[in-house]
TrEMBL record, chains A, B:
DNA-binding region: 49-68
Lineage: Bacteria, Bacillati, Actinomycetota, Actinomycetes, Streptosporangiales
Short name of one Pfam family: TetR_N
Span of domain HTH tetR-type: 28-86
UniProt KW keywords: DNA-binding, Transcription, Transcription regulation
Name recorded for this polypeptide: TetR/AcrR family transcriptional regulator
Keyword GTP-binding on entry: no
InterPro entries (UniProt xref): Homeodomain-like_sf, HTH-type_TetR-like_transc_reg, HTH_TetR, Tet_transcr_reg_TetR-rel_C_sf, TetR_SbtR-like_C
Amino acid sequence: MTLPYAFPMKTQRLPAPAGGRPLRADAERTMRAILEAAERTLSRDPAATMEQIAEAAGVARTTVHRRFATRDALIDALAVWATQRFAAAVDSAHPDTAPPLVALYQTTANVLSVKISWGFAMSQASSANPEVARVYSEIRDTCERLLRRAREAGVLRTDVDIPWTRRVYYALIHEAAQSRDDQDTDALATLVVDTLLRGAGAPHPDRL
Amino acid sequence: MTLPYAFPMKTQRLPAPAGGRPLRADAERTMRAILEAAERTLSRDPAATMEQIAEAAGVARTTVHRRFATRDALIDALAVWATQRFAAAVDSAHPDTAPPLVALYQTTANVLSVKISWGFAMSQASSANPEVARVYSEIRDTCERLLRRAREAGVLRTDVDIPWTRRVYYALIHEAAQSRDDQDTDALATLVVDTLLRGAGAPHPDRL
DNA sequence: AGAATACGCAACATCAATGTTGCAACTACG
DNA sequence: CGTAGTTGCAACATTGATGTTGCGTATTCT
Protein backbone atom coordinates (compact mmCIF):
# COMPACT_ATOMS: atom_id res chain seq x y z
CA MET A 1 0.00 0.00 0.00
CA THR A 2 1.33 3.39 -0.96
CA LEU A 3 0.47 6.23 1.31
CA PRO A 4 -0.76 9.57 0.07
CA TYR A 5 2.22 11.59 1.18
CA ALA A 6 5.58 10.88 2.69
CA PHE A 7 6.74 11.99 6.11
CA PRO A 8 9.39 14.64 5.48
CA MET A 9 12.50 13.33 7.23
CA LYS A 10 14.48 16.51 6.87
CA THR A 11 17.37 16.91 9.26
CA GLN A 12 16.33 18.85 12.29
CA ARG A 13 18.48 21.31 14.11
CA LEU A 14 19.43 20.51 17.65
CA PRO A 15 17.77 22.74 20.20
CA ALA A 16 20.21 25.51 21.04
CA PRO A 17 22.02 24.84 24.30
CA ALA A 18 20.69 26.83 27.21
CA GLY A 19 24.07 28.55 27.38
CA GLY A 20 23.07 30.83 24.52
CA ARG A 21 26.20 30.74 22.31
CA PRO A 22 25.72 28.69 19.12
CA LEU A 23 27.67 25.46 18.65
CA ARG A 24 30.52 25.02 16.25
CA ALA A 25 29.75 22.54 13.46
CA ASP A 26 31.93 19.74 14.81
CA ALA A 27 30.44 20.17 18.24
CA GLU A 28 26.96 19.81 16.88
CA ARG A 29 27.99 16.67 15.04
CA THR A 30 29.38 15.26 18.25
CA MET A 31 26.24 16.17 20.14
CA ARG A 32 24.13 14.40 17.55
CA ALA A 33 26.40 11.36 17.68
CA ILE A 34 26.04 11.25 21.43
CA LEU A 35 22.26 11.45 21.28
CA GLU A 36 22.10 8.70 18.70
CA ALA A 37 24.51 6.54 20.64
CA ALA A 38 22.52 7.16 23.80
CA GLU A 39 19.38 6.00 22.06
CA ARG A 40 21.05 2.86 20.73
CA THR A 41 22.71 2.02 24.00
CA LEU A 42 19.87 2.85 26.36
CA SER A 43 17.31 1.00 24.28
CA ARG A 44 19.34 -2.13 24.82
CA ASP A 45 20.05 -1.42 28.48
CA PRO A 46 18.26 1.47 30.18
CA ALA A 47 20.84 1.36 32.95
CA ALA A 48 23.80 1.78 30.63
CA THR A 49 26.53 4.04 31.95
CA MET A 50 27.83 7.30 30.54
CA GLU A 51 31.00 5.39 29.74
CA GLN A 52 29.14 2.93 27.54
CA ILE A 53 27.27 5.71 25.80
CA ALA A 54 30.47 7.63 25.20
CA GLU A 55 32.12 4.55 23.77
CA ALA A 56 29.16 3.90 21.48
CA ALA A 57 29.40 7.51 20.31
CA GLY A 58 33.12 7.19 19.72
CA VAL A 59 34.02 10.01 22.08
CA ALA A 60 35.58 10.32 25.50
CA ARG A 61 33.35 10.32 28.53
CA THR A 62 34.43 13.82 29.45
CA THR A 63 33.14 15.05 26.14
CA VAL A 64 29.73 13.70 26.92
CA HIS A 65 29.82 15.60 30.19
CA ARG A 66 30.85 18.78 28.39
CA ARG A 67 27.72 18.64 26.26
CA PHE A 68 25.37 17.29 28.90
CA ALA A 69 26.18 18.34 32.42
CA THR A 70 24.53 15.37 34.05
CA ARG A 71 23.10 12.04 33.09
CA ASP A 72 19.63 13.38 33.66
CA ALA A 73 20.35 16.28 31.36
CA LEU A 74 21.37 13.86 28.63
CA ILE A 75 18.25 11.77 28.97
CA ASP A 76 16.17 14.89 29.12
CA ALA A 77 17.76 16.24 25.95
CA LEU A 78 17.16 12.87 24.33
CA ALA A 79 13.51 13.04 25.27
CA VAL A 80 13.16 16.57 23.95
CA TRP A 81 14.93 15.66 20.75
CA ALA A 82 12.72 12.65 20.11
CA THR A 83 9.61 14.48 21.15
CA GLN A 84 10.15 17.09 18.48
CA ARG A 85 10.38 14.39 15.85
CA PHE A 86 7.34 12.68 17.30
CA ALA A 87 5.31 15.86 17.12
CA ALA A 88 6.50 16.54 13.59
CA ALA A 89 5.57 13.00 12.57
CA VAL A 90 2.06 13.40 13.88
CA ASP A 91 1.66 16.87 12.53
CA SER A 92 2.70 16.07 9.00
CA ALA A 93 -0.03 13.45 8.81
CA HIS A 94 -2.72 16.14 9.20
CA PRO A 95 -4.58 14.13 11.81
CA ASP A 96 -7.18 16.84 12.27
CA THR A 97 -8.05 17.46 8.66
CA ALA A 98 -7.36 14.41 6.50
CA PRO A 99 -10.14 11.82 6.17
CA PRO A 100 -10.07 9.72 9.36
CA LEU A 101 -8.91 6.49 7.83
CA VAL A 102 -6.24 8.17 5.75
CA ALA A 103 -5.08 10.15 8.74
CA LEU A 104 -4.96 6.98 10.80
CA TYR A 105 -2.73 5.16 8.33
CA GLN A 106 -0.53 8.15 7.73
CA THR A 107 -0.07 8.98 11.38
CA THR A 108 0.70 5.37 12.15
CA ALA A 109 3.31 5.12 9.44
CA ASN A 110 4.97 8.37 10.41
CA VAL A 111 5.02 7.61 14.10
CA LEU A 112 6.37 4.13 13.47
CA SER A 113 9.31 5.45 11.52
CA VAL A 114 10.20 7.72 14.42
CA LYS A 115 9.51 5.14 17.09
CA ILE A 116 11.69 2.52 15.44
CA SER A 117 14.66 4.86 15.65
CA TRP A 118 13.87 6.57 18.95
CA GLY A 119 12.15 3.89 20.96
CA PHE A 120 13.93 4.51 24.22
CA ALA A 121 13.64 8.27 24.10
CA MET A 122 9.95 8.03 23.37
CA SER A 123 9.42 5.78 26.35
CA GLN A 124 10.55 8.69 28.52
CA ALA A 125 7.19 10.42 28.28
CA SER A 126 7.12 10.46 32.05
CA SER A 127 10.04 12.83 31.74
CA ALA A 128 10.40 15.46 34.39
CA ASN A 129 10.54 17.93 31.54
CA PRO A 130 7.25 19.81 31.43
CA GLU A 131 7.68 20.63 27.74
CA VAL A 132 7.91 16.96 26.86
CA ALA A 133 4.92 16.16 29.01
CA ARG A 134 2.98 18.95 27.35
CA VAL A 135 3.70 17.71 23.85
CA TYR A 136 2.80 14.16 24.75
CA SER A 137 -0.41 15.36 26.28
CA GLU A 138 -1.22 17.38 23.16
CA ILE A 139 -0.52 14.43 20.91
CA ARG A 140 -2.73 12.30 23.08
CA ASP A 141 -5.52 14.78 22.63
CA THR A 142 -4.95 14.91 18.90
CA CYS A 143 -5.08 11.14 18.77
CA GLU A 144 -8.33 10.98 20.67
CA ARG A 145 -9.82 13.68 18.47
CA LEU A 146 -8.87 11.63 15.45
CA LEU A 147 -10.43 8.53 16.92
CA ARG A 148 -13.59 10.44 17.68
CA ARG A 149 -13.72 11.69 14.12
CA ALA A 150 -13.25 8.13 12.96
CA ARG A 151 -16.09 7.01 15.15
CA GLU A 152 -18.39 9.68 13.85
CA ALA A 153 -17.44 8.79 10.30
CA GLY A 154 -18.49 5.21 10.89
CA VAL A 155 -14.96 3.84 10.83
CA LEU A 156 -15.14 2.87 14.48
CA ARG A 157 -18.07 1.30 16.23
CA THR A 158 -20.27 3.77 18.03
CA ASP A 159 -19.82 2.00 21.35
CA VAL A 160 -16.03 2.02 21.57
CA ASP A 161 -14.38 3.73 24.51
CA ILE A 162 -12.02 6.33 23.08
CA PRO A 163 -9.37 6.35 25.83
CA TRP A 164 -9.18 2.57 25.79
CA THR A 165 -9.00 2.52 22.02
CA ARG A 166 -6.21 5.04 22.11
CA ARG A 167 -4.27 2.96 24.58
CA VAL A 168 -4.74 -0.11 22.43
CA TYR A 169 -3.59 1.88 19.44
CA TYR A 170 -0.45 3.02 21.25
CA ALA A 171 0.24 -0.53 22.37
CA LEU A 172 -0.11 -1.85 18.83
CA ILE A 173 2.31 0.75 17.54
CA HIS A 174 4.72 -0.19 20.29
CA GLU A 175 4.52 -3.85 19.37
CA ALA A 176 4.93 -3.18 15.69
CA ALA A 177 7.96 -1.03 16.38
CA GLN A 178 9.60 -3.95 18.18
CA SER A 179 9.54 -6.11 15.06
CA ARG A 180 13.18 -6.87 14.54
CA ASP A 181 12.74 -7.72 10.89
CA ASP A 182 12.43 -4.11 9.87
CA GLN A 183 9.74 -4.41 7.29
CA ASP A 184 8.89 -1.19 5.61
CA THR A 185 6.91 1.22 7.67
CA ASP A 186 3.86 1.11 5.45
CA ALA A 187 3.42 -2.61 5.86
CA LEU A 188 3.67 -2.27 9.61
CA ALA A 189 1.20 0.60 9.61
CA THR A 190 -1.24 -1.50 7.63
CA LEU A 191 -0.85 -4.30 10.13
CA VAL A 192 -1.44 -1.97 13.05
CA VAL A 193 -4.50 -0.27 11.61
CA ASP A 194 -5.95 -3.53 10.40
CA THR A 195 -5.51 -5.13 13.78
CA LEU A 196 -6.96 -2.12 15.51
CA LEU A 197 -10.03 -2.04 13.33
CA ARG A 198 -10.74 -5.69 12.65
CA GLY A 199 -9.12 -7.48 15.54
CA ALA A 200 -8.23 -11.12 15.05
CA GLY A 201 -11.68 -12.68 15.29
CA ALA A 202 -13.61 -14.27 12.48
CA PRO A 203 -16.41 -12.10 11.10
CA HIS A 204 -19.36 -14.14 12.39
CA PRO A 205 -18.23 -16.52 15.09
CA ASP A 206 -20.58 -18.40 17.36
CA ARG A 207 -19.87 -16.27 20.38
CA LEU A 208 -20.77 -17.48 23.83
CA MET B 1 -20.11 -12.17 33.00
CA THR B 2 -19.44 -15.06 35.32
CA LEU B 3 -16.65 -17.33 34.35
CA PRO B 4 -16.93 -21.11 34.45
CA TYR B 5 -14.47 -21.66 37.26
CA ALA B 6 -12.46 -19.51 39.56
CA PHE B 7 -8.69 -19.28 39.67
CA PRO B 8 -7.69 -20.89 42.97
CA MET B 9 -5.79 -18.21 44.85
CA LYS B 10 -4.49 -20.50 47.54
CA THR B 11 -1.42 -19.27 49.37
CA GLN B 12 1.71 -20.65 47.82
CA ARG B 13 4.76 -21.71 49.72
CA LEU B 14 7.94 -19.83 49.10
CA PRO B 15 10.53 -21.82 47.26
CA ALA B 16 12.87 -23.30 49.84
CA PRO B 17 16.08 -21.32 50.12
CA ALA B 18 19.02 -22.92 48.42
CA GLY B 19 20.65 -23.28 51.83
CA GLY B 20 18.53 -26.36 52.48
CA ARG B 21 17.35 -25.70 56.05
CA PRO B 22 13.63 -24.78 56.23
CA LEU B 23 12.67 -21.28 57.35
CA ARG B 24 11.09 -20.49 60.67
CA ALA B 25 7.56 -19.14 60.38
CA ASP B 26 8.42 -15.52 61.20
CA ALA B 27 11.28 -15.58 58.74
CA GLU B 28 8.99 -16.77 55.99
CA ARG B 29 6.54 -13.99 56.80
CA THR B 30 9.34 -11.47 56.56
CA MET B 31 10.51 -12.90 53.29
CA ARG B 32 7.03 -12.67 51.87
CA ALA B 33 6.70 -9.09 53.12
CA ILE B 34 9.95 -8.21 51.43
CA LEU B 35 8.89 -9.71 48.14
CA GLU B 36 5.56 -7.90 48.22
CA ALA B 37 7.22 -4.64 49.18
CA ALA B 38 9.75 -5.11 46.41
CA GLU B 39 6.96 -5.56 43.91
CA ARG B 40 5.12 -2.47 45.11
CA THR B 41 8.23 -0.36 45.24
CA LEU B 42 9.87 -1.50 42.04
CA SER B 43 6.69 -1.22 40.03
CA ARG B 44 6.66 2.48 40.88
CA ASP B 45 10.38 2.95 40.40
CA PRO B 46 12.42 0.13 38.87
CA ALA B 47 15.57 1.80 40.18
CA ALA B 48 14.41 1.87 43.77
CA THR B 49 17.09 1.08 46.32
CA MET B 50 17.28 -1.77 48.80
CA GLU B 51 16.74 0.84 51.47
CA GLN B 52 13.41 1.90 49.99
CA ILE B 53 12.31 -1.68 49.60
CA ALA B 54 13.26 -2.47 53.17
CA GLU B 55 11.36 0.55 54.40
CA ALA B 56 8.29 -0.46 52.40
CA ALA B 57 8.53 -3.92 53.92
CA GLY B 58 8.88 -2.50 57.41
CA VAL B 59 12.22 -4.15 58.06
CA ALA B 60 15.83 -3.07 58.33
CA ARG B 61 17.96 -3.10 55.23
CA THR B 62 20.28 -5.67 56.74
CA THR B 63 17.37 -8.04 57.07
CA VAL B 64 16.72 -7.80 53.37
CA HIS B 65 20.34 -8.70 52.74
CA ARG B 66 20.11 -11.65 55.09
CA ARG B 67 17.30 -13.14 53.03
CA PHE B 68 18.59 -12.09 49.63
CA ALA B 69 22.33 -11.91 49.38
CA THR B 70 22.36 -9.37 46.56
CA ARG B 71 19.96 -7.07 44.81
CA ASP B 72 20.02 -9.37 41.80
CA ALA B 73 19.13 -12.30 44.00
CA LEU B 74 16.10 -10.42 45.29
CA ILE B 75 14.86 -9.51 41.85
CA ASP B 76 15.51 -13.01 40.68
CA ALA B 77 13.54 -14.47 43.57
CA LEU B 78 10.78 -12.02 42.78
CA ALA B 79 10.72 -13.19 39.19
CA VAL B 80 10.65 -16.84 40.22
CA TRP B 81 7.92 -16.18 42.74
CA ALA B 82 5.72 -14.37 40.24
CA THR B 83 6.47 -16.84 37.50
CA GLN B 84 5.08 -19.68 39.58
CA ARG B 85 1.85 -17.80 40.07
CA PHE B 86 1.78 -16.94 36.40
CA ALA B 87 2.18 -20.55 35.40
CA ALA B 88 -0.47 -21.61 37.88
CA ALA B 89 -2.84 -18.98 36.55
CA VAL B 90 -2.46 -20.23 33.01
CA ASP B 91 -2.57 -23.86 34.00
CA SER B 92 -5.77 -23.64 35.98
CA ALA B 93 -7.55 -22.24 32.94
CA HIS B 94 -6.98 -25.50 31.06
CA PRO B 95 -5.83 -23.68 27.94
CA ASP B 96 -5.17 -26.91 26.10
CA THR B 97 -8.43 -28.66 26.75
CA ALA B 98 -11.26 -26.20 27.39
CA PRO B 99 -13.17 -24.88 24.37
CA PRO B 100 -11.00 -22.17 22.78
CA LEU B 101 -13.18 -19.21 23.59
CA VAL B 102 -13.77 -20.34 27.15
CA ALA B 103 -10.08 -20.99 27.62
CA LEU B 104 -9.29 -17.57 26.21
CA TYR B 105 -11.55 -15.77 28.65
CA GLN B 106 -10.47 -17.86 31.59
CA THR B 107 -6.79 -17.56 30.90
CA THR B 108 -7.12 -13.84 30.43
CA ALA B 109 -8.97 -13.38 33.71
CA ASN B 110 -6.53 -15.52 35.65
CA VAL B 111 -3.46 -13.91 34.20
CA LEU B 112 -4.87 -10.45 34.79
CA SER B 113 -5.38 -11.12 38.45
CA VAL B 114 -1.76 -12.15 38.78
CA LYS B 115 -0.42 -9.40 36.58
CA ILE B 116 -2.22 -6.67 38.48
CA SER B 117 -0.45 -7.71 41.66
CA TRP B 118 2.89 -8.74 40.19
CA GLY B 119 3.35 -6.43 37.26
CA PHE B 120 6.97 -5.58 37.85
CA ALA B 121 8.07 -9.11 38.56
CA MET B 122 6.35 -10.33 35.42
CA SER B 123 8.12 -7.74 33.34
CA GLN B 124 11.37 -9.47 34.29
CA ALA B 125 10.87 -12.25 31.77
CA SER B 126 14.25 -11.40 30.37
CA SER B 127 15.56 -12.61 33.70
CA ALA B 128 18.95 -14.23 33.73
CA ASN B 129 17.26 -17.12 35.48
CA PRO B 130 16.93 -19.98 33.01
CA GLU B 131 14.01 -21.48 34.92
CA VAL B 132 12.02 -18.28 34.54
CA ALA B 133 12.89 -18.04 30.88
CA ARG B 134 11.84 -21.65 30.40
CA VAL B 135 8.44 -21.15 32.01
CA TYR B 136 7.79 -18.01 29.99
CA SER B 137 8.73 -19.81 26.84
CA GLU B 138 6.42 -22.69 27.72
CA ILE B 139 3.56 -20.33 28.43
CA ARG B 140 4.18 -18.62 25.14
CA ASP B 141 3.90 -21.94 23.39
CA THR B 142 0.74 -22.76 25.27
CA CYS B 143 -0.70 -19.43 24.26
CA GLU B 144 0.09 -19.95 20.62
CA ARG B 145 -1.36 -23.46 20.73
CA LEU B 146 -4.53 -22.01 22.16
CA LEU B 147 -4.68 -19.36 19.47
CA ARG B 148 -4.18 -22.00 16.82
CA ARG B 149 -6.99 -24.05 18.27
CA ALA B 150 -9.14 -20.94 18.24
CA ARG B 151 -8.30 -20.37 14.60
CA GLU B 152 -9.15 -23.91 13.66
CA ALA B 153 -12.42 -23.64 15.58
CA GLY B 154 -13.38 -20.61 13.54
CA VAL B 155 -12.99 -18.17 16.41
CA LEU B 156 -10.07 -16.46 14.70
CA ARG B 157 -9.80 -15.60 11.05
CA THR B 158 -7.91 -18.17 9.04
CA ASP B 159 -5.41 -15.61 7.81
CA VAL B 160 -4.18 -14.24 11.15
CA ASP B 161 -0.53 -14.52 12.01
CA ILE B 162 -0.30 -16.41 15.28
CA PRO B 163 2.89 -14.86 16.71
CA TRP B 164 1.62 -11.36 15.97
CA THR B 165 -1.77 -12.17 17.46
CA ARG B 166 -0.10 -13.47 20.57
CA ARG B 167 1.94 -10.31 20.93
CA VAL B 168 -1.17 -8.22 20.52
CA TYR B 169 -2.89 -10.37 23.12
CA TYR B 170 -0.04 -9.89 25.57
CA ALA B 171 -0.07 -6.16 24.92
CA LEU B 172 -3.80 -5.94 25.56
CA ILE B 173 -3.42 -7.79 28.83
CA HIS B 174 -0.63 -5.44 29.78
CA GLU B 175 -2.76 -2.40 29.04
CA ALA B 176 -5.74 -3.77 30.89
CA ALA B 177 -3.58 -4.51 33.91
CA GLN B 178 -2.53 -0.86 34.02
CA SER B 179 -6.10 0.31 34.55
CA ARG B 180 -5.85 2.12 37.83
CA ASP B 181 -9.56 1.84 38.53
CA ASP B 182 -9.32 -1.80 39.49
CA GLN B 183 -12.47 -3.07 37.92
CA ASP B 184 -13.10 -6.71 38.55
CA THR B 185 -10.93 -9.05 36.62
CA ASP B 186 -13.78 -10.55 34.65
CA ALA B 187 -14.82 -7.21 33.18
CA LEU B 188 -11.24 -6.51 32.15
CA ALA B 189 -10.90 -9.96 30.64
CA THR B 190 -14.05 -9.38 28.64
CA LEU B 191 -12.66 -6.11 27.39
CA VAL B 192 -9.38 -7.70 26.39
CA VAL B 193 -10.90 -10.64 24.56
CA ASP B 194 -13.50 -8.48 22.90
CA THR B 195 -10.89 -6.06 21.68
CA LEU B 196 -8.66 -8.85 20.50
CA LEU B 197 -11.43 -10.53 18.53
CA ARG B 198 -13.47 -7.61 17.22
CA GLY B 199 -11.05 -4.71 17.23
CA ALA B 200 -12.52 -1.26 17.32
CA GLY B 201 -13.74 -0.97 13.76
CA ALA B 202 -17.34 -0.87 12.64
CA PRO B 203 -18.59 -4.14 11.13
CA HIS B 204 -18.96 -2.94 7.52
CA PRO B 205 -17.09 0.27 7.00
CA ASP B 206 -16.31 1.77 3.63
CA ARG B 207 -12.65 0.87 3.67
CA LEU B 208 -10.25 2.50 1.30
C1' DA C 1 47.31 32.78 9.92
C1' DG C 2 45.22 33.60 14.28
C1' DA C 3 41.67 33.31 17.70
C1' DA C 4 38.22 30.67 19.51
C1' DT C 5 36.50 26.47 20.32
C1' DA C 6 36.46 21.44 20.84
C1' DC C 7 38.51 17.11 21.99
C1' DG C 8 41.24 13.30 24.37
C1' DC C 9 43.47 12.06 28.33
C1' DA C 10 44.68 11.60 33.00
C1' DA C 11 43.85 12.53 37.45
C1' DC C 12 41.00 13.59 41.17
C1' DA C 13 36.82 14.26 44.19
C1' DT C 14 32.32 12.79 45.55
C1' DC C 15 28.66 10.08 46.57
C1' DA C 16 25.16 6.76 46.91
C1' DA C 17 24.18 2.10 46.88
C1' DT C 18 25.69 -2.26 48.04
C1' DG C 19 27.26 -5.70 50.88
C1' DT C 20 29.41 -7.21 55.55
C1' DT C 21 30.03 -7.91 60.50
C1' DG C 22 29.21 -8.08 65.47
C1' DC C 23 26.23 -7.79 69.12
C1' DA C 24 22.22 -7.29 71.98
C1' DA C 25 17.32 -8.06 72.25
C1' DC C 26 13.56 -10.67 70.91
C1' DT C 27 10.66 -14.72 69.26
C1' DA C 28 9.31 -19.13 67.64
C1' DC C 29 9.25 -23.79 68.72
C1' DG C 30 10.23 -28.19 70.80
C1' DC D 1 11.94 -23.31 79.81
C1' DG D 2 15.87 -23.33 76.88
C1' DT D 3 17.88 -23.26 72.53
C1' DA D 4 18.26 -22.01 68.04
C1' DG D 5 16.97 -18.80 64.85
C1' DT D 6 15.68 -13.99 63.69
C1' DT D 7 15.79 -9.03 63.79
C1' DG D 8 17.40 -4.17 64.48
C1' DC D 9 21.08 -1.23 64.89
C1' DA D 10 25.44 0.82 64.24
C1' DA D 11 29.55 0.77 62.06
C1' DC D 12 32.53 -0.23 58.34
C1' DA D 13 34.46 -1.60 53.64
C1' DT D 14 33.94 -1.58 48.79
C1' DT D 15 32.79 -0.36 44.51
C1' DG D 16 31.16 1.76 40.41
C1' DA D 17 29.19 5.67 38.44
C1' DT D 18 29.20 10.47 38.27
C1' DG D 19 30.99 14.85 37.79
C1' DT D 20 35.21 18.15 37.63
C1' DT D 21 39.60 20.19 36.32
C1' DG D 22 43.77 21.20 33.74
C1' DC D 23 46.49 20.83 29.82
C1' DG D 24 48.25 19.68 25.30
C1' DT D 25 46.61 18.93 20.72
C1' DA D 26 43.54 19.35 16.91
C1' DT D 27 39.87 21.48 14.42
C1' DT D 28 36.87 25.08 12.82
C1' DC D 29 35.90 29.57 11.35
C1' DT D 30 36.95 34.18 9.84
